[in-house]
Design goal:
The protein is mainly α and about 170 residues long. The protein has eight helices and four strands. The longest helix is centred in the last third of the chain and has 18 residues. GO terms for molecular function: DNA-binding transcription factor activity.
């Protein structure tokens, strides 16, 4: 299985946005420049994250993107599914029924063992992603990387922050 590069981009951009002060946004251009990505292609992935209510898109000259909910409430699975979709990675097409030597129909009523094994793996993979939040990734990074090494990147982003209107509370 191979995820698109958009998943990596989406995770990194979400992490960057998680560090913004309240009410601040970063435009697509700054996120693309920060990671050396195509602005056009990144915009497509950021819009998918906004459609999934992971990010919020703020229009206008002070606009850009910010988190739509706290980093503690955003899992890696949320980001993967926003970009890749929710479809399972394995699809059983029942090729076992195409073999030249036909077996009794009763055997085909039992679930295909390959399908069962792949579903189990899919559930485990999704659960691992569901159990990892953006906030935890940030905390792990801050634990492993000294503040003075993080500072230049944080300063670069701080210089590009836009202060958009405050987020309206949903009632």
């Amino acid at each position: 299985m191979r995820l698109s590069e958009g998943v990596e981009w989406g995770i990194h951009c979400t992490i960057s946005l998680a560090g913004l002060p309240e009410g601040a946004t970063l435009p697509t251009k700054a996120l693309a420049e920060n990671y050396g990505l195509s602005e056009t292609y990144l915009a497509k992935h950021l819009q998918a994250l906004a459609n999934a209510k992971i990010l919020e898109s703020v229009p206008g000259p002070k606009g850009g993107y910010r988190l739509a909910r706290p980093a503690e409430q955003i899992t890696l699975l949320d980001i993967v599914e926003a970009i890749e979709g929710r479809e399972r990675v394995f699809r059983c097409t029942e090729i076992r029924q195409r073999v030249p030597v036909q077996l009794p129909d009763s055997l085909y009523r039992m679930p295909c063992e390959v399908h069962v094994a792949m579903l189990r793996a899919d559930r485990a993979w999704r659960e691992a992603l569901r159990s990892q939040t953006v906030a935890e990734i940030i905390a792990n990074y801050k634990q492993r990387v000294a503040a003075q090494l993080r500072q230049p990147g944080e300063q670069w982003i701080a210089e590009r922050i836009r202060h958009a209107p405050e987020k309206k509370e949903r009632s």
